Amino acid sequence: MNLFKIKEAKAPLVPIIISIPHSGTKFPKEIKSHYKKRMQKHLDDTDWYVHWLYKFAPSLGITVIKANLSRWIIDLNRDPESVPLYTDNRLITNNTPTTDFYGNKIYISKEFEPNQNEINRRLETYYWPYYKQIEDLLEKRKKQFGKVLLWDAHSIRHKVSTIQKDPFPDMILGNNDEKTAHPDVIKSALNGLKSGEFAINHNSPFKGGHITRYFGKPEDDIHSLQLEMNKILYMDDNEITYNKDRAKKVQKVLQNTMGNLIETLKK
Question: At residue 5, does pLDDT exceed 80?
């Protein structure tokens, strides 16, 4: 099974890599039967269709990497030691979750939940190869351009009460309180995101996950940003069906944002 899919740029390269770690839905056959069938049918924590929103990216010279595995196998945006990313009492799943965001058990029984040996195996087999591929892509772009940006693309349900009581904002740009990217890059991204009709939050309630925090080293000209967006921006209110009309508005904003960032990174 291929762990990820890379969409190569179809135009002259630019110093941007897009990572989509949570749109995967596949389960390795050797452990698929360990999960509840009912849960597998819905995969409620999946960032459904996010990769569709970025279909335009290769035409701008951007390379896209998308994970194929479900985040229930391995969560690529969590710390490898499952150190919590937040300390505000929200529900935080670890790198090999045993529940969904609502606390529902995803395994048939406790005996199938991964022990430390299995966690280590999944990290070695599924987690670090994704990171290594991102690292290779970033190194190549930095070598060519002198600087590079990793854009980590996500979405979340309109409301998840175990994280916060209120509905989520339209879009949230995260950079770990401006630690993972240069201020000019952050400003450029925010200006692009604000070009549409959506309300934009900055580092609240999400500051960027492990991928953003791990790769972002602006002092070395490696910048990283995470965009979290509300699913109803591009799906029907049921958060099941892709809504083309809504998605077009999102894509326009994303294209404007990428255009801004390309110009900023050229300076």
Answer: yes
Which fold, 4-266?
A: Aminopeptidase (3.40.630)
Enter the tokens of residue 143.
């070598």
Give percent of the chain above pLDDT 70: 100
Q: Is residue 91 scored above 80 in pLDDT?
A: no
For residue 80, cis peptide bond before it (omega within 30 degrees of 0): no
Q: How many residues does the chain have?
A: 267
- What are the boundaries of each domain within the chain? 4-266
SS3 28: coil
Q: What is the pLDDT of residues 179-203, one digit of tens each?
A: 999 999 999 999 999 999 999 999 9
d(CA 115, CA 109): 13
Distance CA 155, CA 246 (A): 14
The pTM of the full predicted model, rounded to 2 decimals, is 0.97
Mark 135-166 as b/e (b = at least 16 C-beta within 10 Å).
eebbeebeeebebbbbbbbbbbbeebeebeee
Q: Is the pLDDT of residue 253 over 90?
A: yes
* DSSP for 93-113, written as a single string: --SS-SB-TTS-B-BSSGGGS
Q: 148-180, pLDDT tens digit by residue?
A: 999 999 999 999 878 888 999 999 999 999 999
